[in-house]
Specification:
This protein is α/β, with parallel strands linked by helices. About 40% of the residues lie in helices and about 15% in strands. Helix 1 crosses helix 7 and helix 4 packs across helix 6.
Length: about 190
C-alpha cells in the first residue's frame, strides 16, 4: 500500500509531521512525501525543524519541482494522498487544476484517477472563495477534513487532540490507528 503525504506552507506544520508519524506506526505502508517550498519555512518557524529533518519519516521524498516524479503519473498506483496542512493557495491550485508543482500534480492525479485525496485545510475565517474551492474539490471527489478539535474524546493534551485527528485521517484509508479512541456511544 502506498500513500502520498503532502505538506503545504500553511500554519499547522505539526499536522504533516504527525501524519507521517501516524503512518509509520501503522506500518506496512510505502509513504511518499512532497512538501511545498513554503512548508520548509513554516516547519522552521513552528517546529524548529526542516523538511530535511523529517525526511526519515517517509520512504521516498520527492522534490516539489520534479514533475517527472513517479507520483506525477496515474500509472503509479497509490491508495491516495493526504495534504496536511493544506493552505488556501494549495487548495486553489487543486480546485482549478493548476498543477505547476509536484504537490499540486499529485493531488490532481488522485482526483483524475478517483483515488482518495484528503485535505486538512488550515485557515480561519474562511472566505467565500475558500468555501467555493473546498466545495469544488469535494464535488470532484476530494475529502475535506478540517483540523477541528473534538471534545467528546475528552482530550487532556494537544497530543490527544492530534491523535484523534490522525485517527480520523487514517480512517479515510481504512487504517486503524492505535492512539485513536472512536466514539463508543452512551
Amino acid at each position: 500500500m502506498r500513500i502520498i503525504v503532502g505538506i503545504s506552507g500553511a500554519s499547522g506544520a505539526v499536522l504533516g509531521v504527525e501524519v507521517l508519524k501516524a503512518l509509520r506506526r501503522v506500518g506496512d505502508l510505502e509513504v511518499h512525501l512532497v512538501a511545498s517550498k513554503d512548508a520548509d519555512k513554516t516547519l522552521e518557524i513552528e517546529l524548529k525543524t526542516t523538511v530535511e529533518e523529517i525526511k526519515n519519516l517517509a520512504d521516498v521524498v520527492h522534490p516539489v519541482d520534479n514533475l517527472a516524479a513517479s507520483i506525477a503519473s496515474g500509472s503509479f498506483r497509490t491508495e491516495g494522498m493526504i495534504i496536511a496542512p493544506c493552505s488556501m493557495k494549495t487548495l486553489a491550485g487543486i480546485a482549478s487544476g493548476f498543477s505547476n508543482n509536484l504537490l499540486l500534480r499529485a493531488a490532481d492525479v488522485c482526483l483524475k484517477e478517483r483515488r482518495k485525496l484528503v485535505l486538512v485545510p488550515r485557515e480561519t475565517p474562511l472566505s467565500g472563495v475558500h468555501l467555493r474551492n473546498l466545495l469544488t474539490v469535494h464535488q470532484e471527489g476530494g475529502i475535506i477534513l478540517p483540523a477541528m478539535m473534538s471534545f467528546y474524546s475528552q482530550p487532556e493534551s494537544i497530543q490527544d487532540m492530534l491523535d484523534h485527528l490522525m485517527g480520523k485521517i487514517l480512517m479515510q484509508f481504512g487504517l486503524e490507528y492505535s492512539r485513536f479512541r472512536p466514539w463508543q456511544g452512551i
